[in-house]
Amino acid sequence: MTTLFAAFLASAIRTATPLGLAALGELVVERAGIINISLEGVILCGAFGALLGSTYGGVVGGFLGAIVLGIAMAGLFAWFVVRLRADQIITGTALTILAMGVTGTLYRALYGAAGAALSIPTAGPLAVPGLSLVPVLGPGVFDQPAVTYAFYASIFLLWWWMYRTLAGLGLRAVGESPAAARAAGIRVAGVRTWSLLFGGAMGGLAGGTLVLAQAGTFAEGMSAGRGFIAIAIVVLGRWHPAGVAIAALVFGAASAVQYLLQAAGLGLPYQLFLALPYVLTLLALAGVAGRTRAPAALAKVDEP
Amino acid sequence: MTRWSLRGGLRSARGFAAGAGFVAGLALLLLVLGYDPVRAAAALINGAFGSWYAFGSGTLVRATPLIMTGLAVAIAFRGGVFNVGAEGQFLVGATAATAVALYGPGGNSAATILLCFLAGAALGAFWAAIAAILRTRFHVLEVISTIMLNFAATYLVSYLVRGPMQEPTHVYPQTASIPHTAELARLPGETRLHLGFLVALVSAGIAWWSMRSTAAGFRLRVTGSNADAASSAGRIDVRRVVFSAFAISGALAGLAGAIEIQGVTFALYENISPGYGYTAIAVALLAKLDAALVIPAGILFGALEAGAAAMQRDAGVPSVVVSVVEASLILALLASRGIRQRFRDNV
Q1: What ipTM, to 2 d.p.?
Q2: What pTM does this model have?
Q3: Residue A162 within any structural domain of the chain
Q4: Is the Cβ of A167 closer than 8 Å to some Cβ of chain B?
Q5: Alpha helices in chain B (DSSP H)
């Protein structure tokens, strides 16, 4: 029983890691008053960056490539949305389509149309000495790839930064009232651009996690809606780092249940399990979205 | 409306420069990747416009679902409803039409076709109505909900064509072919172009007229441009308008799915749509959300899709490159301020 639970927990956290990383990045972006719908495209570019990077520089090169491409995508979004004040939702949709096209074209051009079974160096689990031996929780929580520990750490760092530093206060001010923030001497465009770049790095890291710590390969469109689920997780987590982390874990747990049910062989169609995360997102949003408050300036164009 | 002002001229110049820069960039990209851009462009143009047959069977056949889904998106956006779920609504519409054609009452051709159309439109509207309820009652952003519903629709089709609706021999993941009575007639001219193209043209005409000249169209436009003003100054029931925008949009996308089954594929299978519902966004935006302009925009993208298929066949260039073209077009329009800012003030 304990081993089954440990396996369940490990699987839940494994699924939660990329979702949580991307959602924490998007959390900062939304707290600055921007909604980056192209997070889906950022994750996809991150995954492709991981593929490119890992063919030259192993696992480390892969994560670097993921982060760089994630930031590049987010930078493009920032240029349109912050500089040109273009509509955030349309820009985000266009950039997601762009990411699909660019990664698909490059992947087929560089790695062949059939997408030869690429073997990419992967990041194996890294047991934390001592902690991984803790009964029940240890093996699931502390025997994970290094990037999962980065996820744990970023929850606390982000909370500290957002609620205990002046810069974090500035970020939240920008998301609530750009005009008031500007009057207080905060560079609104700068804060928004840096938030977006941070969100891009986190989204890229999430894509890198999919390739380097999970699938071990790249597939076209492998982000499979995770960017949109991550945006939903930000809502479910009520725009707070701890809430976001919990929401990501709940999603991870739901996916883990899906594997368990599938393994149990109840004779249910597998498509039902595949559709589960998306249906779950809808249900969860219906339960929470109306009862929480988004940053006041979210998705509004800032006209100074 | 474009006016010949200095500012307008500058904006179109910026858009033109962005477009030209983009074409040059794309050619360079193809060159770097080891393709021959000239050959690729020739294959693309030849595949889309090379002959009357290519134009009818390739471009216009692909333009039909794009015009229909483009209209769906244009009407929704006009009402401030960001329906990016045309893909899912298309799929469930296709499913409903197939089900009615295969298991329905049968009877004469006109009645069967009409019944299939109705079923497709109804299920498409229902699929969109889920997102409508989520938005109006639960304040769920429709961009998220409609995307989630797209995934749900994809897996629903995947399940049906491998399960209850699979063809009798249970070998292929698709349904049996629909009976001939449910098939749409070909238009004269020795191409694969079918009656559905005319349905798309008529739909665009009706949408253009109602948007312009009816009270409902007016309410839609006012709600889309400023929901608060619409409800306070215009005494418009914004919720109701939003709901109808979703439903009409979903019905059009669902009808597009039905037409694709009855005019082109004659059976339901998993990859029945190469992303028509997403391309539709580019179509609608290029048409500046004007229902009449959706027709040329849909034909342009139909040509691109048909040309891309030829490009992959003849020049070996991956056809996904079309997504790059679509996205860049939207971005160029955004950069040149060709797209009206702020579709939604009512998140």
Answers
A1: 0.85
A2: 0.88
A3: yes
A4: no
A5: 6-32, 37-49, 52-53, 61-78, 86-103, 109-138, 142-162, 195-213, 215-225, 227-232, 238-260, 276-286, 291-315, 321-335
